[in-house]
Structure formats: structure tokens, C-alpha cells
């Protein structure tokens, strides 16, 4: 019980900051939540954009056009509505007497009939105001229940097939619903596979840069004098400890028009342009270096710590045997760094899969969307859409796929790299 009490804060943090977000992401992934649907219940509205979408999804053009047309019905409801709007009672009485029960499919025809009445208003504006009170249209009308929407649609489409009416009613709902359409959309669009390829390329190249540069820095500082090694290490830690926004601004100053690299290239007669966004190869180079230096600083710290754990007697003995620096690295240092290298590889893979801040603050996925990766696309879809309609459900579906990929890679790394041996009991007891 005492042990459980000590573990309870960690369990609360684990559940609140890891399991709960994952569960909520999984829930939202199976909805069509967006800023247009909201997160609460909605209503049923037939709009012009909806009718256009219905035509594209197979609804006959004549049925969609019928919903877009307005009719003018002289009935008690219209009379009461006109009376509430302040229409002249004598004019209303004349309308009810001479035109009651009639339906007009054309607004001009209805106006022409009203103009023949003796008590018609002399102002065109007042006449049109009276006409509007008798208008009956489903377009942009809001219905709070499915039955009311279905009844209204059936009134305008008395001969429409039942499945077509069902399709229109379902499409007109403005609230969120449970759906698997997010995953169908992701696996059916060409943009998805382009983003997947971008992500694989970004993770593979940046990971290679991180491991090799971090290993090179650690080994280099290992052979330097203590003072020089400390100064060198501090300089390479700057990308890791610098606030990300300031770090991105520094790279922009370095690569944008008028920056250091631009000015130097211009002075040397080389092509000078915005290297961060001016071309795809330079944009990818900047993205990989921006993230690679941060990861290399992290890898250098781990590798340097592991190097200090190597018994110095092994290195002395190898020097006595005439081993060169390269032979020391190959036969002594690298075998000792096996576990740190595997850990950095697995950790940085998962970190790069979920990272987007550096790309967002530098290239923002450009030029075009050539440097857009999965995590950045998920963020933009759910929280930063240029169209203004934030698609929470689709963004959550992308995030859920990322979680599944991350967990799968973790299991593969645990089995492939045999981390159980690292965590297991030592085979030699001292």
C-alpha cells in the first residue's frame, strides 16, 4: 500500500497526460467534428453549397434544383406572417379574398397579381416586403429535428425516392456524427501517400544525420583536452537549449533574402535566393539541418556519457598494442556504444515522427506542401486550417494513425534491438 501511495502521483500524471489524450483522440477520430459542426448537437439546414455537393454525390439535378426554388403560397400562415410584419390590413383582406389558397412558383407573377389589387401599397419596397411574407422556401431554413426536416423536404419533393430524401436529410445535418469516413478519406487520396513519403524521407535522413553527427561530436570531444572538449560541447548544446522560436528566427535570418547566406552567395556570384523556401532541395536541407542539429546535441550528450563509462585501461592497453585511433573507435568504442546508439535511434525515430514545430516555424511545409510531414498536416487540419474550417475529427484520425505507428515501431524496436537484454539481470555477478 505504501508503494502504491508513492506511485499514485506518477499514475495520475500518466493517465492525465498520456492515456486520456490518446483515448480522446481515438474518440474524436471516429467523428466528423469541425468548426462547422461544433462539438454539441446541430440542426438541419439545406444550403446552396449543400445542393452543389449533393449533385456531385449522385442526387439528380432536377431534384436538387427543386429544393433551391421558392414558391409563394397565400395561406393563413402567410397572412398571419404578413400581418405581424405590419402589412396594411385592407390589403391583406383583399389578398385573402381574391388570392387565398393559390400558389405561385414565380415571384414576378405573384407581384403582378398583387399590383392588380385596389389596396396595394404605392411603394415598390412595401410591395416586395409583403411578397416576402408569403415566400415558402426550404433553402437556408433551419429545422431542429430530423422529422421536421424530412417533412419539409418531402413537401418540396413529393415524388422523390425515399433513399434520396434520406440522403438529403443526412447531408443537411450540421452537427457531428459518428463515422469512419475520416480513415476512408485518408487512405483514398493521393495527398496522403505524398505526405507519407515526405515523412519517411524526413525521419530517415534526419535520424541518420542525428546519429552520425552526434556520434562524431561525442568521439571528437572524447579525444580533445578537457577544457577544449567542454567548450566544444557547450557550443553544440546551443541548438538544444535555445528556445525553439528564437532558434527558428536565427535560421530565417541565416537563409532568407538579405540574410547571411544570401549576402555571402551574392558576393561570391552564386545563386542568391530564399534558401528556406526558394527551392525544394534547399528547403529539405534546411529542415533536416534544423532538426538534425537539435537531435545531434541530444545524441552527443548520451554518447559522451557512455564514453566516460568505458574503462580507460582498455584504451591504454590498445595503445600499447599499437592500435590507431580508428581501431580504438571500431573495436572498443563502438561496441561499448551499442545500447546508447540503439536507444538514440529508437527515441529519435519516435520524436521525429511527432515533431512539427521546427518545420511549422521555418518552411511551414513549403514550398507548396513539399516539406509537409504527417504531424504537421495533422496539426494544420485540426488546429490551423487556412480555409477556416478546423476539421477536428480528420486531424484526430491522423493523430491516431501516428500513435499506432509509434506504438508499432516501439514494439519492433524492443524486439529487434533486444532491449530486454539491457534491462535484464547481468550475466556476471560481482
UniProtKB/TrEMBL annotation:
GO cellular component: plasma membrane
Gene3D superfamilies attached to this UniProt entry: MetI-like
ABC transmembrane type-1 domain sequence ranges: 196-413
Top-level taxonomy: Bacteria, Pseudomonadati, Pseudomonadota, Alphaproteobacteria, Hyphomicrobiales
GO terms under biological process: transmembrane transport
Protein name: ABC transporter permease
Compartments reported by the entry: Cell membrane
Family membership noted in the UniProt record: Belongs to the binding-protein-dependent transport system permease family.
InterPro entries: ABC_transporter_permease, MetI-like, MetI-like_sf
Main location group: membrane
Membrane topology annotation: Multi-pass membrane protein
Amino acid at each position: 500500500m505504501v508503494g502504491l501511495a508513492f506511485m499514485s502521483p506518477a499514475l495520475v500524471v500518466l493517465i492525465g497526460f498520456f492515456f486520456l489524450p490518446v483515448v480522446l483522440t481515438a474518440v474524436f477520430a471516429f467523428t466528423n467534428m469541425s468548426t462547422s459542426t461544433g462539438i454539441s448537437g446541430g440542426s438541419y439546414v439545406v444550403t446552396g453549397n449543400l445542393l452543389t455537393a449533393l449533385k456531385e454525390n449522385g442526387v439528380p439535378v432536377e431534384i436538387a434544383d427543386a429544393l433551391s426554388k421558392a414558391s409563394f403560397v397565400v395561406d393563413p400562415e402567410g397572412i398571419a406572417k404578413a400581418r405581424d410584419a405590419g402589412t396594411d390590413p385592407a390589403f391583406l383582406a383583399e389578398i385573402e379574398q381574391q388570392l387565398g389558397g393559390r400558389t405561385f412558383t414565380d415571384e414576378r407573377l405573384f407581384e403582378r397579381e398583387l399590383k392588380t389589387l385596389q389596396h396595394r401599397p404605392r411603394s415598390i419596397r412595401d410591395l416586395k416586403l409583403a411578397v416576402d411574407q408569403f415566400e415558402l422556401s426550404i433553402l437556408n431554413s433551419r429545422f431542429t429535428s430530423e422529422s421536421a426536416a424530412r417533412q419539409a423536404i418531402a413537401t418540396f419533393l413529393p415524388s422523390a425516392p425515399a433513399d434520396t430524401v434520406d440522403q438529403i436529410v443526412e447531408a443537411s445535418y450540421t452537427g457531428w456524427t459518428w463515422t469512419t469516413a475520416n480513415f476512408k478519406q485518408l487512405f483514398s487520396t493521393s495527398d496522403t501517400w505524398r505526405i507519407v513519403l515526405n515523412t519517411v524521407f524526413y525521419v530517415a535522413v534526419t535520424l541518420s544525420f542525428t546519429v552520425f553527427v552526434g556520434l562524431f561530436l561525442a568521439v571528437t570531444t572524447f579525444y580533445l583536452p578537457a577544457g577544449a572538449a567542454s567548450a566544444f560541447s557547450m557550443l553544440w548544446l546551443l541548438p538544444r537549449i535555445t528556445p525553439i522560436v528564437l532558434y527558428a528566427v536565427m535560421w530565417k535570418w541565416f537563409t532568407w533574402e538579405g540574410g547571411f547566406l544570401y549576402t555571402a552567395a551574392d558576393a561570391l556570384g552564386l545563386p542568391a535566393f530564399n534558401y528556406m523556401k526558394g527551392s525544394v532541395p534547399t528547403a529539405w536541407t534546411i529542415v533536416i539541418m534544423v532538426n538534425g542539429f537539435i537531435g545531434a546535441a541530444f545524441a552527443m550528450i548520451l554518447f559522451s556519457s557512455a564514453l566516460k563509462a568505458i574503462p580507460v585501461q582498455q584504451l591504454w592497453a590498445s595503445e600499447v598494442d599499437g592500435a590507431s585511433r580508428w581501431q580504438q573507435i571500431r573495436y572498443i568504442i563502438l561496441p561499448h556504444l551499442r545500447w546508447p546508439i540503439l536507444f538514440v535511434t529508437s527515441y529519435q525515430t519516435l520524436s521525429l515522427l511527432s515533431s512539427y514545430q521546427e518545420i511549422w516555424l521555418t518552411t511551414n511545409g513549403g514550398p507548396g506542401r513539399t516539406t509537409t510531414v504527417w504531424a504537421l498536416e495533422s496539426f494544420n487540419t485540426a488546429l490551423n486550417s487556412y480555409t477556416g474550417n478546423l476539421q477536428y475529427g480528420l486531424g484526430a484520425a491522423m493523430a491516431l494513425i501516428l500513435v499506432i505507428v509509434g506504438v508499432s515501431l516501439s514494439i519492433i524496436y524492443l524486439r529487434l534491438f533486444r532491449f530486454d537484454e539491457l534491462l535484464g539481470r547481468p550475466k556476471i555477478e560481482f
